[in-house]
UniProtKB/TrEMBL annotation, chain A:
The keyword Phosphoprotein applies. This is STAS domain-containing protein. Keywords: Phosphoprotein. SUPFAM superfamilies: SpoIIaa-like. Residues 160-271 form the STAS domain. InterPro entries: Bact_StressResp_Reg, RsbRD_N_dom, STAS_dom, STAS_dom_sf.
Automatic annotation (TrEMBL), chain B:
SUPFAM superfamilies: ATPase domain of HSP90 chaperone/DNA topoisomerase II/histidine kinase. Residues 36-137 form the Histidine kinase/HSP90-like ATPase domain. It comes from the Bacteria. It comes from Terrimonas ginsenosidimutans. This is Anti-sigma regulatory factor. InterPro entries: HATPase_C_sf, HATPase_dom. Pfam families: HATPase_c.
Length: 288, 137
């Protein structure tokens, strides 16, 4: 009668032990992040997962992990993986969750199935099933990480556009990185607001940190300059590197209507002149 | 001519542009292309990839490092999309022509920035643009 036992029956009979074995297996992993997940959480998560797993293999159909039997399991696994990705688990840690289950299952099967040939066949089937579940894990894990990256990209574009008041009536805005449409919007808004706030009359847009100026970036710059002018302020673009200047010319972009300067200090000097300010070195006479 | 390095990059969203541009920069650095030529290549690539996103809803780019019998080394990029195609190439290649209320400098500008420029388009089928920038050219 023992020879007729299915994988489901074997595992279900030993569900408690299997759970314990699996947990032990997971905790043995030296990479287990107790800082990221508590033992109690892990215990509950694993218990829930095992229940769903057993329900999915009830009919002994291990071959097709895409069938609707496995929907709930796949969904749950995806949820766990994406959660781990968001919380900073490594791919190894995430993968070990499902791979360690394999070990625990094999252990149970070895005990329950005495016929070696049958044991071999069943182990192969389980092996294949767990491997395809692992694929789900990795796919969702990567998706989770991509979401994190996109979120960070958006955050960076928000924080990396500081408008600095360098002098009375003079604002500077160093732009670092790629200037895309959404970024330009942020840049333009914060610049215009700061102009109103500080009643500045000159704004310096420094692009030394922009890797390339293509026609879209140029257009964004031109728009920003026109908008500043409409606010009654003059806009200077500084930090045009030689290689960028050459590229702009070949591309055919006409920046002749725009006040450009090679460096931020040139732009600042120009701004001082415009505002009739003078920066001088102290002489000994005035010092004494 | 031999191909030394090759890689295909899918372009589906705005975020892909930065990734793609970094890869092109990597290729240019690999063959020690100078800063001016590299910037020109990057800018041309940027124009074409933007067109692909804007007018054809994305596509893919084949990036290659090629070496020619005359010992010229360069980066070749092939942009292919399955968009609507361009009805009048001659017009599209003119400075200032744009159906997107833009500057209309992308295609003609890219052509001026690279060593070899080739464009093929079929209405309803898509557009393929191939550019090559030699290390010293
Ligand atoms: N991949 C493409 N598929 C379909 N049409 C295209 C494609 N690339 C360019 N075009 C057409 O060719 C025209 C000219 O392109 P070009 O890049 O020179 O100018 P633009 O994109 O309109 O403006 P800019 O690039 O200066 O912002 C476009 O307006 C568009 O109608
Ligand atoms: Mg264009």
């Amino acid at each position: 009668m023992a020879a007729k036992i299915t994988v489901y029956q074997a595992l279900n009979k030993n569900a408690k032990k299997l759970h314990e074995d699996w947990l032990t297996q997971q905790m043995q992993d030296e990479g287990l992040r107790e800082d990221l997940i508590s033992n109690e959480e892990l215990r509950l998560e694993s218990e829930e997962f095992l229940k769903t797993f057993l329900a999915a293999i009830k009919d002994d159909l291990l071959e097709d992990s895409n069938s609707s039997n496995f929907d709930k399991l796949n969904e749950m696994l995806a949820g766990i993986s994406i959660n781990r990705a968001r919380h900073g688990f490594s791919p190894r840690e995430t993968g070990y969750y499902i791979f360690s289950l394999k070990q625990a299952i094999f252990k149970t099967l070895e005990k329950e199935i005495t016929d070696l040939k049958k044991l071999y066949t069943e182990i192969l089937r389980v092996n294949k099933l767990i491997d395809s579940l692992a694929t789900v894990t990795f796919e969702t894990f990567i998706r989770g990480r991509e979401e994190v990256i996109i979120r960070q990209t958006n955050e960076i574009s928000d924080i990396s556009t500081p408008v600095i008041q360098v002098w009375d009536n003079i604002l500077a805005l160093p732009i670092i990185g790629t200037l895309d449409s959404s970024r330009t919007q942020v840049v333009m808004e914060s610049l215009l607001m700061k102009i109103v706030e500080t009643e500045s009359t000159i704004a310096i847009l420094d692009i030394s940190g922009v890797p390339a100026v293509d026609s879209l970036v140029a257009q964004h710059l031109i728009k920003t300059v026109s908008a500043t002018r409409l606010m009654g302020a003059e806009c200077i673009i500084s930090g045009i590197r030689p290689e960028i200047a050459q590229t702009i010319v070949h591309l055919g972009i006409d920046l002749s209507g725009i006040n450009t300067k090679a460096s931020l200090s040139h732009a600042l000097r120009f701004a001082f002149q415009t505002l009739r300010l003078e920066v001088r070195k102290k002489t000994d006479k005035t010092a004494s | 001519m031999i191909v030394l390095n090759k890689d295909t990059i899918k372009i589906e969203k705005e975020q892909d542009v930065v990734f793609f541009r970094n890869r092109v920069a990597e290729y240019a650095d690999k063959i020690k292309m100078g800063l001016v030529n590299k910037t020109k290549l990057l800018t041309a690539a940027s124009e074409l990839v933007r067109n692909m996103l804007r007018y054809a809803n994305g596509g893919k780019v084949l990036c290659e490092i090629i070496s020619h019998a005359t010992l010229q080394t360069g980066v070749r990029l092939t942009f292919s999309d399955q968009g609507p195609g361009i009805p009048d190439i001659e017009k599209a290649m003119q400075d200032g022509y744009s159906t997107g209320k833009s500057l209309g400098l992308g295609l003609p500008g890219a052509k001026r920035l690279v060593s070899i420029f080739d464009i093929k388009t079929q209405l309803g089928k898509g557009t393929t643009v191939t550019i090559t920038k030699w290390k010293n050219g």
